[in-house]
Amino acid sequence: MKKNRELMLVAVAAISLIGAACTKKTAVKPPPPPAPAATAPSTPMRAATPMRSNPAPTQTATAPTPRSPNAATRARIDQLLARIEDAYFDYDKHTLRPDAINALQADSTELRDILKDYPDYKLTIEGHCDERGSAEFNLALGDARAKAAKDYLVQVGIPGDQLSIISYGKERPVCQEHDEACWQKNRRIHIVAMMASR
Fold it and tell me: Virtual CA dihedral for 65, 70, 75, 76, nearest 10 degrees?
């Protein structure tokens, strides 16, 4: 009987081993790999922005910039030109006197600001002389006076290509008397507006 008992114990142990071997094995998952060591980024990280496709640029139809002033602006230019007095000169001289500079300086800044926006709008500076001297001499003197005025106006910023000069010499006097008071009125420059020819 002792032998039977030993055999039974051996049989039970064998069955236990066989039963353990036949049971379903569950796979054991390996532990996740350790996270890489954090390194400080060389540039600060920004929040990711979603990628957007650039929309096609919209083309807006813009009207071409006018090269000549409208009626209201032309009226303003005429007002400014009327306020800018003629600049007067000494006998046989073409250098600008202080009173001539003051006459040109009045409103020339506003005139400059208007003209630079309208490149087709032109001004003509007329040079005039008194009746004394030859026609040729007075044409040259009137030209030199108009050029002196143009140089001053260009210096204050009026575009030179919008200023033309012409000399009338002694042909267009504003005063017909034959004395110094009248002659002084004729030694002048006068500025007029002139639209460019098309």
Answer: -30
Report the distance separating Cα 2 and Cα 43, nearest Å: 83
For residue 55, the cross-strand partners are none
Write the pLDDT tens digit of every residue in 55-98: 555 555 555 666 777 888 888 888 877 777 789 999 999 999 99
Whole-number Cα distances in Å, 8 to 5, 13, 15, 132, 152: 5, 8, 10, 158, 132
Count of CB atoms situated within 10 Å of the CB of 188: 23
0.70 exceeded by the pTM?
A: no
Let me know: does 118 contact 175? Beta carbons within 8 Å. no
Sequential DSSP letters for 129-175: --S-S-HHHHHHHHHHHHHHHHHHHHHTT--GGGEEEEEEETSS-S-
Q: Other CB atoms closer than 10 Å to residue 129's CB: what's the count?
A: 30
Domains of the chain, CATH where assigned: 71-171 (3.30.1330.60)
Nearest CA among 188, 198, 193 for reference residue 91: 188
Query: Quick one: angle between helices 108-115 and 71-83, nearest 10?
Result: 150
DSSP E strand stretches across the chain:
87-88, 121-128, 163-169, 188-195
